[in-house]
Design brief:
This is DUF2000 family protein. Pfam families: DUF2000 (PF09391). InterPro entries: DUF2000, Pep_tRNA_hydro_II_dom_sf. The structure is a single chain. Helices cover 37% and strands 25% of the residues. It starts with a strand and ends with a strand. The protein is globular. Strands 5-6-1-4-7 form a five-stranded mixed sheet, with helices on both faces. Strands 2-3 form a two-stranded antiparallel ribbon. By secondary structure, it is an alpha+beta fold. Strand 2 and strand 3 form a beta hairpin.
Length: 137
């Protein structure tokens, strides 16, 4: 039997829908780079068109800004590798070098986290995210 994982992306509930879509896409992409178990290698239909081969439940949740940092810290304490994205990062369109410099010079709490992604064992992720609600854009 394969491992039952869960992927969660929690966003700041004050974000507008477009900002939520942006942040979740960016966070999910980085999560997939960190944890290759999230996606299957190559899923194609009969026409040869690629399909997203997501292996496990992926849920978008929303919550208070302060809870996002707490989630990232709790996930790290559990030995997981959370991915965060910031409102300051969203403002730096096509300025990756500036973003990297900003991130490397600050702590997570100073950067205005707007999204946190984490993947791990299903029950553990549910326990870490019980204070969040399902996002209802």
């Amino acid at each position: 039997m394969s491992e039952l994982l869960r992927t969660v992306i929690a966003v700041d509930k004050s974000l507008e829908a477009g900002a939520v879509a942006n942040a979740t896409a960016i966070v999910m992409g980085q999560l997939a780079r960190i944890d290759a178990r999230i996606y299957a290698d190559d899923v194609r239909d009969g026409d040869g068109v690629h399909h997203a081969g997501i292996r496990f439940n992926t849920v978008v949740l929303s919550g208070r800004t302060g809870h996002l940092l707490q989630l990232a810290e709790a996930a790290r304490a559990e030995g997981l590798a959370p991915v965060v994205f910031t409102t300051r990062g969203q403002a730096l369109s096509n300025s990756f070098d500036d973003y990297r410099a900003m991130v490397e010079g600050a702590s997570s709490g100073e950067l205005g986290i707007c999204a946190v992604g984490v993947v791990g064992e299903d029950a553990g992720i549910r326990a870490l995210t019980k204070r969040f609600s399902v996002y209802k854009g």
